Sequence to fold (1072 residues):
Amino acid sequence: MIILQYLFYILIFPGALFTIAAGLLLAGIDRKVIAHMQKRIGPPVAQPVYDFFKLLGKETIIPATANRAAYLIAPVVSFVSLCIVMLFIPILGFRAIGGAADMIVILYLITIPGAALIVGGAASGSPFAGIGISREMVTMMAYELPLVIILLTVAKKVGGDMLIFDLGIVSAYQAQAGSLITEWSMIPAAVAMLLVIPAEIGTQPFDVAEAENEICEGPLVEYSGSPLALFKLSINMKMIIMTGLFTALFFGGIRTGFVITDLIVFVLISTAVMLVCITTTHAITARLKIEHLFKFYWTVVAGLALVSAVLVWIGL
Amino acid sequence: MIQHFPVLAVMSLFLGAFLVEIFGTKREAVRNAITFVTFTLVLILLYALIKPVILEGRVISYWMGNWEPVAGYAIGIGYEVDALGLVFAIIAITAFWLSNLYSFGYMKGEHHLGHFYTLFMMLCGSIIGFCMTGDLFNMYIMVEIMTFSAVALTGFNTDKDGALEAALKYLVICSVGSGFILTGIALIYLQCHTLNIAQLATMLAGRLTPTTLMSFGLIVAGFGVKSFMVPFHTPLADAHAVAPSPISMVLSGVVTKAGVYGMIRCIYILFRAMDLTQMQILITTFGTVTMFLGVSMALKQHDFKRLLAFHSISQVGYILLAVGLGTTLGLTGGIFHAANHMLFKGLLFLAAGAVLHQTGGITDLDRLGGLSKKMPHTTICFLVGAAAISGIPPFNGFASKWLIYQAAYTKAIESGNFYYLIVTIAALTVSVMTLASFVKITQAVFFGQLSEANKDVTEAPKVMLVPMYIISALCLITGVGYKFFASYFVLPAVNSAVNVTNYIDVMMGDGYAAAAGVSNMAADNVMISSWSPVVYLILFVTVLAAACIVILASSGDRGRVVEVTDKDALKHSNFFSGEEPVYSHVSGSDMLWGYKHNFKAYYNIMDKIHTGRMTDYCSMVVIAAAVIIVFMFMFMR
Amino acid sequence: MMIYNYIACILLIVLGLYTVCTQKNLLKTIIGLGITDYGINLLIVSSGFNDGGSVPIYQMSDLLNGVSSQFFVDPVPQALTLTSIVIGACVNAMALAIVVMIKKKYGSINVDDVRRLKG
Fold:
């Protein structure tokens, strides 16, 4: 019975199926809203779904320089680890597996898709991919520092004098004391987190790793067919996971009492977060250079997060 | 019967060293048989001690020549095995056994192999003796034998460029470090007139006179040199780059750990000064600086083994940071990370050695590339090691690093000191920088395009692959079953480090510790909170299987995977903006440009510090030792 | 009068470390190591000395019957010094052997020329 329950969690909700559906939905809304911002009509909201199935039907070409095994396994690893991350993020009141992982574990789990993308790109043997993975890695280093500070700040805010890394407790604390976004000392951290999300997902202005018109999508340059479909799907899934993490960290106090309504509110908030930090920034900015990106994250964003950390540390 | 095992283990290694020198210089079979039998024997002897010492918590003592203490004064030289020493001895013998197996393949065809194995066994014997001795001067002698053999093995391949230079730097700097240790021991003897660690523990704790404080500073600096923390790290980087790979493995996995062990033994047991706030700040500062400097230097290297060497320094920084926190959780993380570091860094060095061996001695990252097609097994092992050292779950590096983060953060909120929060952030950030440098190696060596010079490279021989696969399996097992290892292997060692009364009583007679007023440190509860890798692994495997089925099912006639044939060679060549593809490999120096550009000023300073001049390095050692001593006199009296 | 011994050994140790840190000639570096060793040996052997003490040949009963330990010269430091001298000699021998080979290979024993491994 436990196994069936776990299988349900993994495969349907909040694992694979929900993450895929929500991710594709968010991606569709994102494209539609950007189109409207740019005075275009834009594709239908279901366009990411059509893209996914179209790619599944295409031929998979493996380059002669590629290491076949790593080239094919990397997208699967990326997809699988993202399915698992969602199990550990509380959806407002609901949590699939309690006490199995904490914030540090999630921090490491969400580096796995990045690492898989890097291994896959490297395995293709293309020089474009080589440049792309180099940039992807620098991007990861860039946003990891602020993300770490944000998570430790939340832990300090929630835990006080105790070691609290558990997201479930973070959620329960917010239900009692109000969402963390209402604390003014947490506002800089929230802003920093909003800036971390686009870099983690790789959208403009932080899409240096996959710059299409510069290095031809970097790590993905040689991919085609179903592996490419999985990677594209992973990027869409990351959208719901990162915005969901933001919701869990800063809007975790909202409770409606039912899992279904909780879920709807969760997706709505996540969509709103996405519209602010992904769609709008995408529409109004141009791509940064990699060295500027690194500098931006280690000075401005990390500085914002550190301000929050100091404020929380002195008890505000 | 069992009380003879420690001495037998050390003696059989030294005896084996002589036997190899006498009988094994000519015939390879005899030589390999002697070394293999000796190492296996010692392995069995030490593993037999696990049950009584680690699981049952007994302490085994052995007085050489049966010179037992008289009237509360230790006269003879005593061997004393507690869980702390045994854990480090087991780390050592495991690494040596695997390294020995590997060197049968790696060193085949070299000259003077008899001498090689003699030194190799002396190195192992000295480290195991170092971990098990209960006598301070004996500890010094073992350190010296260790330094000798390590230096000779570093410069073993005298034809290799830089080998002699590295050996000389290693020898001179480590001799200065040994000098510090010996001076410290002499000062302790002046004060206390005994050399037995158990007896000294009753005399020194909490009574830091200027003499003992001076000796404490000297001993911390001396073991700092032996564990190669910054700023004593310079000889290690040079030594790794030129030493034969099995030696690199034990240098990084075991010799640095010997320094860490000496430091734990001195700080926690001999002086029991770990509850002093200043001591904690001193050691954690050194740990944090070591951690960051090691990894940042690693990111700019372009020699395979030199890069790994800087990672050893960085990981020793993690261990020192955890040990320096002075909490039970921190010590657990530190010792666990020491064991894990031996495994994954050993694996990485063995993989590096396999590349070096098969490509005919190329370690320059800019001249390698695309080897994964020629050496698939080495690539798998290397990726496992890289994932483990970068702390990607479910490998073992994650488990121990995660304990260290928890310990550091707990320390931060318990002491209310913002400094420890910075330390935690640094530890977490260094982890992703570690990942970055391994991405660099992975791209530059194993993936990317195969150069014309390496067209005929073949997979490494089986005798080299077997140890690599064994360590890969151990990396996964200790990562998944980390709770088991932490509670049954590491925690006993931690308990023996913080509860010294048993250690003293077994050596000096019952009630000695109580009579001297020694009590156990208050051990706080070890909290190993939520991370259940078994659940995670089951989930991972289930979904992986499901996803693989999807992938395979989709490779019907629509999304089929086409093999390369001459006809559609162009279709399977790299995309090159429509041009004819040429050989173009993104190598090590091309990677991580955005990062290096921002750290240009920092790297200029680092280049000025790492001059390669021995006098500069010696000055760094002496100045750092002086700083440690001055710090102690200013803040710890 | 032991104070002179301690001053002398501290001077020797400091002098040795100074030589190691400043002298560019590798042979002088090794001489510096040797001087440090001598200083430490002097420190150890001084630690056992008692002015007017006798040879350390005694029965355990003498010791237990209240004869002070000031009575004889402590034998342990002498054993330690012997060991330490042997180790010091080995260090010097090995270092000299390496320097000879460096001279053959690099053509120089100046530290400024022996710095191929750096950065």
Notes: The first strand of chain B starts at residue 60 and ends at 63. The CA atoms of residues 163 and 556 of chain B lie 56 Å apart. Chain B has one domain: 2-518+589-635. Residues 556-562 of chain B have pLDDT under 50 and may be disordered.
